[in-house]
Specification:
Layout: E1 2-13, E2 16-27, E3 31-35, H1 42-49, E4 57-62, E5 65-66, H2 72-79, E6 82-85, H3 97-102, H4 123-135, H5 151-165, E7 169-173, H6 181-197, E8 201-206, H7 209-212, E9 218-223, E10 226-232, H8 238-242, H9 250-258
Parallel strand pairs: 3-8, 3-9, 6-7, 7-8
Antiparallel strand pairs: 1-2, 1-4, 4-5, 9-10
Length: 267
């Protein structure tokens, strides 16, 4: 069953045609890695899927419901079904780790923001928040301020906040770009573990090809605002993926990518 469907999506920023007729779908429980060089349009596509960037034409559906045709109230409900892990964590630095995780319940709280504040949160939500922190191995940091943690630890808090939300869909936009290599690999390992445990649908953008090759059921490669590769991991080569990042000779890019055919698994 298709959870995310993107139909002929176009997006301009002034005269820059960033997304050029994008078509793709992501099935339930699938783990997709979205690849491409800086400026290829992958982050704009991610922001469009979660409703943060409006598109010019086309349609985006979550669970078969159009985000373009939906009313504002319906859009808010759809956004609650999508958890986002950002590159820059988006934590409230001067608040506790525990409080930041509690904010993950905001969309489902009838009491709104007040119901997600630690002094007023229900016992069930407090226990759930601690369980999420235990899963990312940061329960001992619950009372510490978020900005006192390392970058890798802060991204783990962001993952715990996402788990608190209980979304069926997770969008991770360059989740390791701000981290050192060791922390980045640990965060990717954790992200993939927890989403697979819960059968979540994941779309993750990455710029580091060597890391990307270790994860994902499927690779979608973007080049100049278009999808040039869309294949299971055992049907695409590292050479074909590397061609997405070659800037010097556009002709060579097109030659490799246009010749794309199912191939052997990446190493």
């Amino acid at each position: 069953m298709s959870i995310i469907t993107v139909n002929d999506v176009n997006k301009h920023f002034a005269d820059n045609h960033v997304l050029k007729g994008i078509n793709l779908s992501v099935s339930q429980g699938e783990g997709v890695i979205l690849l491409g060089a800086n400026g290829c349009g992958k982050s704009t596509l991610m922001r469009s899927i979660c409703g943060l960037t409006p598109i010019d034409s086309g349609d985006i559906q979550i669970h078969g419901q159009s985000m373009i045709k939906a009313r504002q109230r319906e859009i808010r409900a759809m956004r609650r079904q999508v958890g986002v892990v950002f590159q820059r964590f988006n934590l409230v630095g001067n608040l506790s780790v525990f409080q930041n995780v509690l904010y993950g319940a905001l969309g489902g709280e009838r009491l709104g923001l007040l119901g997600c504040m630690a002094p007023f949160a229900s016992q069930a939500n407090r226990e759930k928040a601690m369980a999420c922190l235990e899963r990312v191995k940061l329960a001992n940091k619950a009372e510490q301020k978020a900005d006192q943690l390392s970058g890798g630890q802060q991204q783990r808090v962001a993952i715990a906040r996402m788990l608190m939300q209980e979304p069926p869909v997770v969008l991770a936009d360059e989740p390791i770009a701000s981290l050192d290599p060791k922390s980045g690999r640990e965060v990717m390992e954790l992200l993939w573990e927890v989403t697979k445990e819960r059968g979540l649908t994941v779309v993750c953008t990455l710029h580091h090809l060597d890391v990307a090759l270790q994860y994902g059921d499927r690779f979608i490669g973007m080049l100049n605002g278009k999808v040039h590769i869309d294949a299971p991991r055992n049907e695409v080569t590292k050479e074909q993926l590397e061609a997405l990042y070659i800037h010097e000779k556009a002709e060579e890019q097109d030659s490799v990518l246009n010749d794309f055919t199912p191939a052997t698994a990446v190493a």
